[in-house]
Amino acid sequence: MKKQILVTGGTGFIGSHTSVELLEKGYEIIIADSLINSEITVLDGIKAITGKEAIFEKIDLADREKTLALFKKYPEIDAVIHFAAYKAVGESVENPLMYYRNNLNSLMNVLEAMKENNVENLVFSSSCTVYGQPEQLPVTEQTPIVKANSPYGNTKQISEEIIFDFVGIAKDIKAIALRYFNPIGAHASALIGELPIGVPNNLVPFITQTAIGIREELKVFGGDYNTPDGSAIRDYIHVVDLAKAHVVAIERLMNNENKQALEFFNLGTGVGVSVLEAIHSFEKVSGQKLKYKIVDRRAGDVEKIWADTSYANQELGWKTELNIDDAMLSAWNWEKQIRNK
To answer: Exactly one of 86, 99, 152, 180 is catalytic; which is it?
Structure first.
């Protein structure tokens, strides 16, 4: 019988790409999403790529009763990949309670439902924001967790603590928290990609929307950082590489290959790229000249961060295969495709 995986937030950016990878590996998936930050049309893209249908449930997982009912409706769930969360750093600074209420309640409801229904495996979508601004780079899994720079980052720290405490008492549940760096790009088919509602909070959709003429100019937040060109440095990882890591992680749990009840892995490329370098990569692969200006730093942003990925490479047998140019070109192809609809 096919293994059944619940993908919460599965119509979102990373969730949709992971759903594709799971379907292509023969899993049956249930996507649970509120559609607050995504579009139902993403399901068409997933089906067009894979030729397979995902079961879809529109649900707000911050609603405990509805979450418990979802698990009762699908008693065959083998594992959960939990993406569902609000994710914009700036918005979390402006509206912290919304972030705490949504991100923490939804996780606790999912964990409670897993325990009630004997679902043993959880992959949690965490973030490198748990490291704040590390004193030493690159970041390893042993890098100390420092006070988060934003309520969003804090919800990821607290979520990891909740899972740690929970698997400690729920002896049969095991989990992997994947701490990702900066996911960008789109599926090579240009049938799914990053689809921000309203003004984008992330760099790459802002780049592509500026290039195609939707935004007048791109704002680069901070030109006076202690970096080679003054702009902030991030570790940009192609979303398809990231999606594949989720499949590896969920299989590690289902095959009982995990070494602890809760494991942590950094998912990045191991290469720090500045915002200006990212812009130049886009200009190179797209042939488009971008209009941008350097403005003040943004609250909640760290100066520079990139991953040491050696632990994930060795333990998971996973590594990135795509680079920033690949990601920028795929993001540009996706942008052109959605505007041509």
So the answer is: 152
Domain presence at residue 192? no
State the SS3 of the chain: CCCEEEEECCCCHHHHHHHHHHHHCCCEEEEEECCCCCCCCHHHHHHHHHCCCCEEEECCCCCHHHHHHHHHHCCCEEEEEECCCCCCHHHHHHCHHHHHHHHHHHHHHHHHHHHHCCCCEEEEEEEHHHHCCCCCCCECCCCCCCCCCCHHHHHHHHHHHHHHHHHHHCCCCEEEEEEECEEECCCCCCCCCCCCCCCCCCHHHHHHHHHHCCCCCEEEECCCCCCCCCCCEECEEEHHHHHHHHHHHHHHHHCCCCCCCEEEEEECCCCCEEHHHHHHHHHHHHCCCCCEEEECCCCCCCCECCECCHHHHHHHCCCCCCCHHHHHHHHHHHHHHHHHC
Structural domain span for residue 39 = 4-184+236-267
Whether 178 and 248 share a structural domain: yes
Same domain, 325 and 263: no
Which pTM does this prediction carry? 0.96
Q: From first to last of its 341 residues, what are the pLDDT tens digits of the chain?
A: 789 999 999 999 999 999 999 999 999 999 999 999 999 999 999 999 999 999 999 999 999 999 999 999 999 999 999 999 998 888 899 999 999 999 999 999 999 999 999 999 999 999 998 998 898 999 999 999 988 888 999 999 999 999 999 998 877 899 999 999 999 999 999 999 998 888 888 899 999 999 999 999 999 999 999 999 999 999 999 999 999 999 999 999 999 999 999 999 999 999 999 999 999 999 999 999 999 999 999 887 889 999 999 999 999 999 999 999 999 999 999 999 998 86
Same domain, 164 and 228: no
100 catalytic residue (yes or no): no
